Amino acid sequence: MATTARTQFGSLGSGNHFAEVCLDEQDRVWLFLHSGSRGIGNKLATRHIDTAKKLRHLLPHAVDDPALAWFVQGTPEFEAYIADMLWCQAYALANREAMLAAFAQAFFRFVGSGRERERINCHHNFAALEEHDGQELWVTRKGAISARAGQLGLIPGSMGTRSYVVRGLGNPMSWQSCSHGAGRRFSRNEAKRRYSVDDLRREMGD
Predict the structure, then answer these.
(1) 46: closest CA among 88, 8, 76?
(2) Which of 52, 80, 102, 180 could link 69 by a cystine bridge, Cβ 3.0 to 4.6 Å?
(3) Contact (CB, 8 A) for 63 and 104
(4) What is the pLDDT, as a whole number, of residue 206?
């Protein structure tokens, strides 16, 4: 896994990851990039999930479904999971930074001039230790990003549709969060069944 992390650092990945050039309502150019931990987070999470399933008989409450097993805070297994998770989040952040730098350099070279004025690099599908209602809690944002008051964030749209640069409102009802993306009308397999490459080309050509 260490070799994979080194060799794929600075690469975008597959699935719904993308890089695109956007123009906002004030004719400002945004270089928009969506990527994560390049599968390393998923692999490490799977390892820890397997461990949690094996140890579920030690939990303070009975768990009938192994998929609902968890680690008790303060145990070695919990601390190992948190350490790996935070490492993956740091890797994803650094990976995006490297790609954004290369993206900007290539874009400026292509257009002949330009300079970067602002950069937003936000996590999605992550967990963080935060304080809410006077309590310190681990908040998991699946399909969501942090949206503290004044915090800038990114919401990517579907391919060919608008993406959004947003400013958080810090709404406590949403745990100071907002959506990460457009969501899916169909599963990936169903979308592949319904639409061909030619369909995509026609859509993108409009």
Answers:
(1) 88
(2) 52
(3) no
(4) 56
Q: What is the mean pLDDT of each run of 10 residues along the chain (206 residues)?
A: 82 80 92 85 92 92 90 95 95 94 94 91 92 94 94 86 92 93 80 87 75
> How high is the pLDDT of residue 8?
87
Query: Can you say whether the dihedral through the CA atoms of 113, 32, 169, 138 is positive or negative?
Result: negative
Our CA angle for 136, 141, 146, nearest 5°, is 80
**By CB neighbour count within 10 A (0-12 exposed, 13-18 middle, 19+ buried), where does 92 fall?**
buried
CB 157 within 8 A of CB 194: no
How far is it between the farthest Cα atoms of the chain?
64
Cα–Cα–Cα angle for 8, 89, 34, nearest 5°?
65
Catalytic residue among 34, 123, 124, 180: 180
In this structure, are strands 177-179 and 144-146 parallel, antiparallel, or unpaired? antiparallel
**138 bridge partner residues:** 129
Q: What is the pTM of this model?
A: 0.86
Supply angle C-alpha 22, 145, 137, rounded to 5: 165
Q: Which residue type is seen at 18?
A: F
